[in-house]
Predict the structure.
Amino acid sequence: MRWLKVSFQRIESSILPSLSMPVSSLPIPAHYGLRENAVFPDIQVLDMDTQQPTAFELNLRESVVLITLLGCQSCEQTLKQMKIYNFNAFEFDMVVLTFLYPGVYYAEDKIARHNAFLKALSISKKFIVLEEAINQLEITSFPTLMRISPDGKVIGTYLADAHQIAPHFQSSGIDIAS
């Protein structure tokens, strides 16, 4: 029984210090997606509001692109977390690209639920992308966030889970809460 107590103490002493360490407030780079300084490709998207296909165009200011997967619980948690932000106050364009993968079951229900999350945000640029665009962006995990410079070059590709999204929006130095 003594060895069990010693083993537990070792585990406890290795875990507890990590629990008390402060969480970094810096964005966490992803190991997938377009690399820094890559040119954001020309992709085709479907506007979620008008249901019309169009070419995705970047504006003449920085863009932050959140890439989600339809029906992804982690993506939904991130979208829920983003409700606290007033994206109209930011000096960048906020865009959501939602990957609609082939053969998705109950797509209409999932699109309706996803749209409900998006309507709670102050984001006007919401698009559906298909597999070809996801491949061009080299995305293999969701949710992912890309920062794109005004000249169309990737600033970075980052993890965008709900607890990792705040550093991207808190670094602007303006009042971001709705």
Remarks:
- The first strand starts at residue 44 and ends at 47.
- Strands lie at 44-47, 53-55, 63-69, 93-99, 125-129, 144-148, 154-159.
- The radius of gyration is 19 Å.
- Residues 20 and 80 are 26 Å apart (CA to CA).
